[in-house]
Give the backbone structure.
Amino acid sequence: MSNYYNILGVNKSSTQDEIKKAFRKKAVEHHPDKGGNEATFKKINEAYNTLSDNNKRHMYDMQQSGGGGIHMGGGPFGGPFGGPGGGPFGPMGPDFMNMFFRQAQQTNHSHSFMNRQSNRQKESAPTELRQTIQVNMEDVYKGLTKTLNVKTSRKCGFCLKPCQVCKGSGMVEKSVTKTMHHAKFVQITKEKCEPCGGSGDISNKLNCEKCNKTGVFEKNTAIKMEIPPKSYHDFVSRIKHPEEDNVFIVIKVIVKCPDGFYKNGDNLCYTHKLHLIDTLLGTNIKVHLPSGEDIEIDYTKREDIIRPDTVLYIDNKGVIPGSDLMVKFDIEYPKTRLILSDDTKDTFSSLRENLEKIFNNK
């Protein structure tokens, strides 16, 4: 074992102030940021952590002097309980055992405090109920009010009794006996109480008429949610429950586009279906926007032809002001080739001639 006194440059009779001053001097001298050795710096910290704590220092001094631990029973270590001097706790005396039990007692108090703190946090933590609703884009242009049916439940306070096993804490102590240096130590740990499942309460619901032997009270509450106008994109809203304390409803609102429409960022996209003959001869296209506005595109007066990759951009008709309406086309082709007959031969021949003229003039 390293000699912590030599590492810090002090002796066994040094006071805590002297140890602290020596540590600061050594730490500055060997700090890695100052070019010192990292391993040496760790040893300095290890030495100070031990010698600056009176209990750890006492145990360290005993180990250095050869005490080593508690020896139960007689034998080569002298005395009925081991160690010179014949004391009931060997060479370390009663101070070591008092120190051990003080630490165990402090640990138990710490566990108890943390459990109480954890229970308070559970009680104060807000409850969130989650729902998802879907609205049509046509509705949100002017805004609307949605009524939600929210179901809440809470434990019945009439049939709940504090758990007798954990005394309402939700945790139980478990003792484990360990042997170290021929001495037996009892280690106390905390575990979740099985009878109450860690809740600290036991339900006697089978005999409770208040909750109809269910153990819970359930209630449905109608809650109104205001969706502001022009809420075109999906969003999440968090609403305080009007009747339940510390309960919030988290609502995800999904805005559904009308058939044929979809969103591309802030732009509104529309796919219009038309026959092949309409792309050749031109047609009048009408688009009914989710806002209720109708837009007309007259291709009978345009010279350009509608192609499969044609996209029209109409300014300021998108999802929000400043965004665009993008009109795309889904062209339907005949399922079979045109069959010429005596009655249609002249018509289709004339159509072919006109198409050839169009393609030759491109």
